[in-house]
Each structure stands twice: as C-alpha cells, then as structure tokens.
Amino acid sequence: MITTRTTLDDLRAQFSDAHGYLAACTAGLAAAGTRAAMTAEYARRPDVAEYCRAVEASRRHFASLVGVSADRVAIGSQTSVQVSLLAAAVPAGAEVLVPEDEFSSLVLPFVHAGRGIRVRTAPLAHLAEAISPETTVVAFSLVQSASGEVADLGAIIAAAARVGARTVCDATQAVGWMPVDATRVDALLCHAYKWLCCPRGVSFLALSEDYARSLTPVHAGWYAGADPWSSCYGGAAELAGCARRFDVSPAWQAFVGAEPALAAFAAASIADVYARVTSLAADFRARLGLPQPTQPSAIVTWPDAGGDALAALTAAGIVASGRAGNARVAFHVFNDEDDVERAAAALAC
Known about the structure:
The chain has two domains: 8-29 and 269-348, Aspartate Aminotransferase, domain 1 (Alpha-Beta Complex); 48-266, 3-Layer(aba) Sandwich (Aspartate Aminotransferase, domain 2), CATH 3.40.640.10. Helix content is 36%, strand content 14%. The chain contains twelve helices and ten strands. It has helices at residues 8-12, 32-41, 48-66, 79-87, 104-111, 127-130, 153-163, 209-213, 252-267, 270-288, 308-315, 337-348; strands spanning 73-76, 95-99, 118-122, 135-141, 166-170, 187-191, 203-207, 299-303, 321-323, 326-330. Strand 9 and strand 10 form a beta hairpin.
C-alpha cells in the first residue's frame, strides 16, 4: 500500500501544457513520469524483469487507489474482456440489470453470453428500485460516460443485498478523480487510460473473495499461473490462488508507462482531487446556467444535437467531445480556472 502522500500541486506538476484539454473522460494526458518511462523503454533492449516489476507495481498502486489488497486485483487490457469473465459465470436463464444507455462494453458481454440470460434496463436514477428478486447481477458504471451522472452507490448496494444479487461496477470514469472503495461491490472494473492517464491497454478487475470463488478463469494463460515463469509450457500449470488467476498476458510496454502515472495518483489525496475538479465543474455549470447535479461530477454535459457547442469549443482551441447528442467536457487535476473561463467564453460567442 502507498503510505507517502504528495500534494495536489505535486500531482499537477506531472502534467504540462494541459490548457484547454477538457477530455479526460475520453483519454487522459500523459504524465511526465509516463513520458520518461516510455522514452527510456524504446531506447533500450527488452527487459522482461522490468516488465514484470512494472506490472506488479501497477497492480499494487491500483489496489491502493480502490482500497483493497493487491491479491484481490486481476490485470487485463480491456474491460469488455474482463466483463465477459463475469458474464460466463451468470447462471442460465438469469436476469442481469443494467442502466439505460450504459456503455456497451459493460452490456454486450452479458447480452451475448447466451444460455438464455436476460438483460433488463432501467434509468440509472431508479436502478436500485428496479432490482427485483429475479435479478442475479446488477452491472452499472459508477459515473456514466455519456452524461457524467453519478450512480447512487449506497442505494444500489443495499437493494442488491436484499435479494442476493451481485454488484458489478465499472469505475473507469471515476477512479482518478473521486474516492472509490472497491470493497463495497462484488466486482470493480477500470480501464486506466482515462482519468488515471495511463497508456491504453491497462485495465484492472478488483474482486471480492466470495465472488472470485464463483468464477472460472476462462481466459487463463501463462500469466495466470502461480509461478508464470515455471509453468508456461503444457497444460498442467497450477493457477494462482488469488485474483491473479484471472490475469491475461500483460501488454508490457503499456504497463511500463502506466506504473509512474498510477504511482502519482496513488500517492496523492484523491479527496483533494475530487474537491478541486468538482468545484471547477460546478463553476462551469453556473457560467452556462446548467443545473447542478445531486451528486457532484467532474463531467459536464448538455444538449448539443447539432454539434454547434462542440464546434465552438474546438474553434477556440479547446479539446472536448460529443456523446449521445450531448456536448461533453471533463475537468481533471491538470485543469484550472482559466479552462473554465475559456470554455465558457467560447460558448458565449
């Protein structure tokens, strides 16, 4: 676990020339440590020992960020692949409940799992109320990609517990800017290339011990072995006795770049990051006359069916995005009040 804490300014110092970049919800900016690590990586010969160190250090950093021990975390390269592991364990004919308009990587593995599995939807704001005795799994993003809406985690967990349903939470749009406690859910997924500012190809799956015992390592490969380097031939390998048995072979260079970024976020106070980014987002909403959400979010969206708002932001040199008929901006640790001013001014023209 990370014990040394750094300041918000220390974390911000990892990012330079970030002005006008309001798209952490699409892809994070590379941290200084990541740039240095990747530059060094491609200037030397492959170093397998360094790759393995980076993978295991990354696992520890992520575990620290979400409040679990490293042995409860599996590594991967895509959340959809890790969701498919969970979908493979859903009983035949069972019901999976997901929010309406949920990101497809969380939904499609259940939709196409076969075995008569039924996927039902409900509005995120009423997801807890929609959980019924027929629900086996409730799968949801902690923060919605298209809208920035934050799930009522407490209500969903309580409703799921009443009927014995598993909770599968995708925290890709949350870890890095808001405090996240993986111990509250059965499974927590995160791709680290957004708010954690890692290279694409680094994802994590944190599992409760009880849930892990119910899963089959359908993607097991050489890195899932108890001792990968001594059991990478033949079919008699003993799998790891912890969540590592759900590992897939790591994208080595991606983890080399990810480790410094994850270390920087794990050493920072995410509560301080949360306070800063939600304040910036709230200021921006106020400047545009948008309502403030019940639960603060670093993502701000508003209707933009014709793309006019996105075009205005782009013309002003601001990197933003459009999703599901909305314009979308995100405020991260590297943003400041000047970004709020520039974006609001661009939209006022």
